[in-house]
Every structure is written in structure tokens, then in C-alpha cells.
């Protein structure tokens, strides 16, 4: 079975765009490949310095991953900091990548420009080396990522290939794969932009843990257009098409077919809102249940860390041996 690795940072609350665009595919994908899912808390450390927040965010992310349907008996869900080999191999990766290569990373350039005048950690700069370690530790063959992460997978390949040619065949060279197309969910207030945490306000954003009444309100206020015709047309009618896409993602029916059932925007908005509320109801219930049983959550993450750790230990040992470090 193909080994697949996906990682997510424990930052911010998961929203409908994350779920329909990505997480839902993680759940269906767990039966098609040997999947490892890391909650990369140490990556989040590159931009987080408030004491006591990361652990909490990590628990909430873990509960969410299990609540949406990742099965701990099938998928390996683990916390990056629970597997010390990430930082150990991270150093080796740092010594296998050049300053120049890291300087060319567009994510570093963007993120450091945004933090101008603020603290820019060296970790933000070496971040791709830690990410490379995350990937090669698990002999991952495929890494499903969006466009913004392609360059990080490319540099991981370069590092793995360079290491293998220096020290002999050690790492599986991974490849970036385009995740199975999830729904592209747009902001309800600005339907030409993707639903994203970086939006100025969250009136166009629906969180997975939001109350039904609040969700309905956001849908009822969704921006449409000044016409009255319900038609699926992304370019001309982005607001209406987004509502149709969301309804389609919840119901499994094609957006074009759904469009024929509506003559007014009002009922489309409330049906889309209700479909989302109903889809989220069982997820919210499982999430609350998990969060009230912290011992069980800790146990699930322990199981994940054991499984991940076994693979990671073997890879790190192989790398150290091939380098020729003195065995203890
Ligand atoms: N850099 C990724 C992001 O910002 C998160 C990440 C860390 C990751 N390690 C990874 C993604 C390994 C894929 C594989 O989303």
C-alpha cells in the first residue's frame, strides 16, 4: 500500500473550507493508502510564543480529526512533538540543505515580509528542513498538498536526493500529489476569495464547531448578486454558485441539478445553511464527547505516537548509520 503523509498545524479553528476541501478527503483516503497524519505543533512554534496555548490547540485539532472520521485503528494520527525523531532528523536535514536554497522559499519570503518589524525566528527560515524530516521519516511516497506547499515538497526531494547520493540510499524520495479535488468553498461575504482564516472578518467563514443558529445567520446573509435567477455559473454568479457548491458537497448531487430546483435566492440560502448544520451535527457531537474524555484522547494520541515512533526510529537509525555517526 502506498504510504501517504499529510500534516496540519494546530492553528485556528477548522472551518468549512478546510473540511470540504481537505479533511473530508483524508477520511475517505484512509482506506485507500497507509496514511500518517501529523499534527505539527513544532511548526506552529515558528510563529507562536504565547505560553500554554499550543497544547490546547493540539488537543482540539486531534479531537477534530477523530470527530470528522479518522479512525485511529486505520490512520496513524500523531503529534509531531511526541516523536522526537522529527527534530533530530530536522538537524540532519538542515545540514543537507543550503542557505541559498532556504532563502528562495516563497513562503519564508511572504511570512517574514508580513512580520516585518516583528520577531522573525530562525525557525521560520529553517522550517522547510523540519518539514523535509517530517516527510522522509515515514518513507512517505506521496504527500498531498495544495499549491502553496509544492515548493516545500520540491526542496524535500532535493534534500533526499542529495543525502542519498552523499551517504547512500537512505530515504524514499517523496512526490507531491494533488489531493483528490474537494469542494472549493468560497467566503460567504466575498465569494471570489477562498474561505480562509486570513479573511479580515469571520462573517463569511463557517467554523465546524459553530452553533446552528449562527451558521444559519451567516448563510442568510451570504452575498449573492443583484439578479434573481438561480444558475450555476462560477464566473458570473460567484455567490450563488458557491451556495450551490456547498449544497452539492453536502448532498452529493451536482450543483447544476440543484440549481434547477430554485427560483429564488432565499430558499437556496436556507437550504444550504440547513444542509451544513445537518452535516456538522454528528461531527460536533463526537467532538464534544471526545473533549469530555481527555484520557481517551490522550490514549489515542499515545497509540499514534507509538506507531509513528516505530517507523521514525528506524529511519533515523538508518540515516545516522549511513552518515557514519559513532554508535552509542
Ligand atoms: N508546511 C505545511 C503547512 O503550512 C505543514 C506541514 C508541516 C506539512 N510538515 C508537513 C505538510 C509535512 C505536509 C507534509 O500547511
Quickly list its features.
single chain, 328 residues, mainly alpha, Rossmann fold, Tyrosyl-Transfer RNA Synthetase, 2 domains, three-stranded parallel sheet, two-stranded parallel sheet, 13 helices, binds tryptophan
Briefly characterize the structure.
This protein is mainly alpha-helical. It contains 13 helices and 5 strands.
Describe the overall structure.
The structure is a single chain. The chain is globular. Strand 4 (142-144), helix 8 (150-167) and strand 5 form a beta-alpha-beta unit. The longest helix has 30 residues, at 294-323. It is mostly helical and 328 residues long. It folds into two domains: 3-182 and 294-323, Rossmann fold, CATH 3.40.50.620; 212-288, Tyrosyl-Transfer RNA Synthetase (Orthogonal Bundle), CATH 1.10.240.10. The protein has 13 helices and five strands. The structure holds tryptophan. Tryptophan (TRP) is lined by residues 5-7, 9, 40, 43, 131, 134-135, 143, 145, 149, 152. Residues 5-7, 9, 40, 43, 131, 134-135, 143, 145, 149, 152 line the site of tryptophan (TRP).
Amino acid at each position: 500500500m502506498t504510504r501517504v503523509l499529510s500534516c496540519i498545524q494546530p492553528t485556528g479553528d477548522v472551518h468549512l473550507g478546510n473540511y470540504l476541501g481537505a479533511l473530508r478527503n483524508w477520511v475517505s483516503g484512509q482506506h485507500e493508502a497507509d496514511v500518517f497524519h501529523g499534527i505539527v505543533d513544532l511548526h506552529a512554534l515558528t510563529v507562536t510564543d504565547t505560553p500554554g496555548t499550543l497544547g490546547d490547540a493540539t488537543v482540539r485539532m486531534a479531537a477534530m480529526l477523530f470527530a470528522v472520521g479518522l479512525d485511529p485503528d486505520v490512520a496513524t494520527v500523531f503529534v509531531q512533538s511526541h516523536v522526537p525523531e522529527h527534530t533530530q532528523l530536522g538537524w540532519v536535514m538542515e545540514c543537507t540543505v543550503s542557505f541559498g536554497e532556504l532563502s528562495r522559499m516563497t513562503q519564508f519570503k511572504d511570512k517574514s515580509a508580513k512580520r516585518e518589524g516583528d520577531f522573525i525566528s530562525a525557525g521560520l527560515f529553517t522550517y522547510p528542513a523540519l518539514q523535509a524530516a517530517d516527510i522522509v521519516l515515514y518513507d512517505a511516497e506521496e504527500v498531498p498538498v495544495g499549491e502553496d506547499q509544492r515548493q516545500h515538497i520540491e526542496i524535500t526531494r532535493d534534500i533526499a536526493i542529495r543525502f542519498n547520493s552523499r551517504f547512500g540510499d537512505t530515504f524514499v524520495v517523496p512526490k507531491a500529489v494533488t489531493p483528490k479535488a474537494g469542494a472549493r468553498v468560497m467566503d460567504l461575504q466575498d465569494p471570489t476569495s477562498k474561505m480562509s482564516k486570513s479573511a479580515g472578518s469571520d462573517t463569511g467563514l463557517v467554523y465546524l464547531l459553530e452553533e446552528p443558529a449562527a451558521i444559519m445567520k451567516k448563510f442568510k446573509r451570504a452575498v449573492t448578486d443583484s439578479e434573481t435567477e438561480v444558475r450555476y455559473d462560477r464566473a458570473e454568479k460567484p455567490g450563488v454558485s458557491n451556495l450551490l457548491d456547498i449544497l452539492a458537497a453536502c448532498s452529493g448531487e451536482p450543483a447544476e441539478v440543484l440549481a434547477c430546483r430554485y427560483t429564488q435566492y432565499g430558499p437556496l440560502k436556507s437550504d444550504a445553511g440547513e444542509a451544513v448544520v445537518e452535516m456538522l451535527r454528528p461531527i460536533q457531537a463526537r467532538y464534544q464527547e471526545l473533549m469530555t474524555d481527555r484520557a481517551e484522547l490522550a490514549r489515542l494520541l499515545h497509540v499514534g505516537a507509538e506507531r509513528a515512533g516505530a517507523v521514525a526510529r528506524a529511519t533515523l537509525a538508518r540515516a545516522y548509520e549511513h552518515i557514519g555517526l559513532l554508535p552509542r
